[in-house]
Amino acid sequence: MFTGIITHLGRIAKKTDASLLIKTDAELIGQLSKGASIAVNGVCLTVVDLEESSFQVEYMPETADKTNIKYLQADNQVNLELPATASSLLSGHIVQGHVDGVAKLESISGEGNSHILKFSIAKELTKYLVEKGSVTVNGISLTIIACGQDFFTVGIIPHTWDKTMLHSLDSGEFVNLEVDVLAKYIEKLVKV
Question: Which residues face 47 on adjacent strands?
């Protein structure tokens, strides 16, 4: 489990059909071990190898199909988060690292000190989004400003803009999207 509060950034050093080699800072590397979980752009993956300034994770075809891993290239920046522990502050929201799909960045606009990002999304996922509700975008816990049948918007404060990979996004790029798991459980209970 994660909280959606990004703690580190990394860069894709190498990508294969089944693995990513990610360069990051020594402080994060020191907290990793083989077999440990780590969220990479919100995707919960397993560390399979460690080096002095990088780590390797593996992924399966289902993960590549469902996430933006299929679009990643060498030198792309990625958000990284270690799993929550029993003593972690839940300062974001409950994030599983189980991506529901991708969203396409349609636009970025400025509003005061913040950036407003508008994403298009598959209609089957918008039923889980509500204004002022939680959504995870590339692993970042965010609050929805507005949502419609096939879009949603979020606001990004300067700290989040600077400390995550969002500042490197361009219109037309895809991000990982995890809807609030509580909404999915409620939907299932109501159908029973």
Answer: 57
Phi then psi for 56, rounded to 5 degrees?
Answer: -120, 140
* Residue 95 pLDDT exceeds 80: yes
Q: What is the pLDDT of residues 107-149, one digit of tens each?
A: 999 999 999 999 999 999 999 999 999 999 999 999 999 999 9
Q: Is 164's pLDDT higher than 90?
A: yes
| CATH number for the domain harbouring residue 61 | 2.40.30.20
- CA–CA separation, 45 vs 23, rounded Å? 15
Could you tell me how far CA 172 lies from the centroid of its own chain? 17
Looking at 46, 81, 116, the residue that finishes a domain is 81
CA distance to 25, 111, 119, 136, 141, per residue, from 2 (Å): 20, 29, 23, 11, 10
Tell me, yes or no, whether 76 and 118 share the same domain.
no
- Which residues, 6 or more positions from 3, have their beta carbon under 8 angstroms from its beta carbon? 81, 84, 88, 89, 90, 91, 92, 93, 94, 95, 141
Please check whether residue 40 is in contact with residue 54, taking contact to mean a CB–CB distance below 8 angstroms.
no
Phi/psi of residue 181, nearest 5 degrees:
-60, -30
